[in-house]
Structure formats: structure tokens, C-alpha cells
Design a protein that fits this description.
By secondary structure, the chain is α+β, with helices and mostly antiparallel strands. It has one domain (4-116, 139-209). The chain has helices at 29-32, 40-48, 54-58, 75-83, 107-125, 166-177, and strands spanning 9-22, 101-104, 130-148, 182-186, 194-198, 204-217, 222-227, 233-235, 242-243. Strands 1, 2, 3, 4, 5, 6, 7, 8 and 9 form a nine-stranded mixed β-sheet that branches. Strand 3 (130-148), helix 6 (166-177) and strand 4 form a beta-alpha-beta unit. The chain is globular, with a radius of gyration of 18 Å.
Length: 244
């Protein structure tokens, strides 16, 4: 792909990076186990003798190179995006044939990215207004050398198109095939924020569960977010949400 050689690579070291996911996805026992990831194929083989549906839970482990798998407490949050993929669920930097772990540099970046996509989903369902799905905040660290689309040198205009993923998917597919660990880019939905698309789970570490969140659908958009733990409700406006 022409132009990709000119994209600079930057060392990204983020503490407190944030990912927001649906709470419907439980931790995966194998990934949380203290066993060495190198032993996972043997454990899976043994477990399949009594639990034939285990592969549905784990997903396609072969999508993650053995040397880049991670295990231990919280590892489900890092591994699952790479083992549970589908071409029915494409995103900005994948057509769904391989996994990507998306994180924001702060809570607001992750929040605005997810409410945009949740609103698009809700619009398709034509569901009545109300409090809808519950989400959970995952806080983690990122330490990786990533292709950087945050400056004009990154030639990022097409890859950051707010409405089309054609160029961004092609870019990611090419970069990944040439050994890239991922992409850092300006948040599309939260001006001033930054996001990361990681191609491998070992580029992040120390995932910890944070807040549980409820999103409110008003029939046209996500207009409110509730912190389940404190009960605080935030109104979604064009800047980070204000407490109502």
C-alpha cells in the first residue's frame, strides 16, 4: 500500500487507558487461570472431554500467536477481542477476520466512542426509549510501538473518515501483515481525545475492572449515562458529560 512507509511509529506508554465493554461478556476461565499460556492447548484438549462447548466460550485461540497470548487475572479483557471475531462485526481497523483491542486515553474518549456505536445499534433495533444495556469500564496500561496517525505525517484523513471504514481497514490489514503492533489515532467521537487499536493482546497489561455503567436511549441517541455504583447520572452533550 502506497504511503504507509511514511507513517511514523511512536512509543506509546499509557497508564490508566480505558476500554468500555458490554457487561454481558463474562470472564473466560482459561484465560484467567494461572497456567502458562503455552499449556493452554493441552488444557483445552482435556477439558473438551467433559465440556464439548468449551471452544464456544474460548473462541478461536489460533487467531493469537502462541508467543503473544496472555494469562492471569483480567486476561479475558485482553484476549477475548482476539479470539471472538466475526466478519459480521467489522470495526474501523478490522473487517472482522482478525481481532483488535480498542482503548481510549481517558474515560471520556472511551465513553464517547462506545455511545456512538451503541446509538447506531439501538437505532437499528427500533427499541423504545429507556435504560438499555449495562457496560463495564476496564482500566489498563499500554506499552507498545505503534503507527501514529495523530499528525499530518501519518496521512490519516481517509483512515479517519467518520462514516467509512474502507480505507482504515485496508491500512490496518497492511500494517498488521508487515509486523505492526497497532495504531494510535485521534478519537473520532471525542475531539481532543486519543485512541489505540492494538493488534495483539500482549501490548496491554494490568487490566482492572472499574465502574459499571448504564446507557439511556431516548429514541434518537444515548442522552444519559449512569454510574451504577454511585447512582450519579451524567448528561451526554458535545463536550464531556456534565452531572445532572
Amino acid at each position: 500500500m502506497s504511503g504507509t512507509a511514511d507513517i511514523p511509529v511512536s512509543r506509546i506508554e499509557w497508564k490508566g487507558a480505558v476500554r468500555i465493554i458490554r457487561s454481558a461478556f463474562p470472564p473466560i476461565d482459561l484465560f484467567e487461570d494461572i497456567a502458562d499460556p503455552a499449556d493452554w492447548p493441552l488444557l483445552i484438549s482435556a477439558e473438551q472431554k467433559t465440556n464439548p462447548r468449551i471452544m464456544t466460550t474460548i473462541g478461536n485461540l489460533d487467531l493469537v500467536p502462541s508467543g503473544r497470548r496472555v494469562g492471569g487475572n483480567g486476561a479475558s479483557y485482553l484476549m477475548a477481542p482476539f479470539t471472538h471475531v466475526s466478519t459480521d462485526r467489522p470495526s474501523r481497523f478490522t473487517d472482522g477476520s482478525f481481532g483488535v483491542l480498542y482503548v481510549g486515553d481517558r474515560f471520556e474518549s472511551a465513553l464517547f466512542e462506545t455511545i456512538h456505536h451503541h446509538a447506531r445499534f439501538m437505532a437499528r433495533t427500533k427499541e423504545a426509549p429507556g435504560w438499555t444495556s449495562q457496560f463495564r469500564e476496564i482500566v489498563m496500561s499500554v506499552d507498545a510501538d505503534l503507527h501514529d496517525l495523530r499528525t499530518p505525517a501519518g496521512n490519516s484523513d481517509q483512515a479517519l473518515d467518520p462514516d467509512s471504514y474502507t480505507a482504515s481497514q485496508a491500512l490496518a490489514r497492511h500494517l498488521r501483515s508487515t509486523g505492526s503492533d497497532g495504531i494510535v489515532y485521534p478519537s473520532i467521537r471525542h475531539p481532543g481525545g486519543e485512541c489505540i487499536a492494538l493488534f495483539y493482546p500482549d501490548c496491554a497489561s494490568n487490566p482492572l475492572q472499574g465502574r459499571h455503567l448504564d446507557y439511556h436511549w431516548d429514541g434518537a441517541r444515548v442522552d444519559l449515562v449512569r454510574d451504577v455504583g454511585s447512582g450519579a447520572v451524567f448528561r451526554i452533550v458535545d463536550v464531556p458529560p456534565d452531572l445532572v
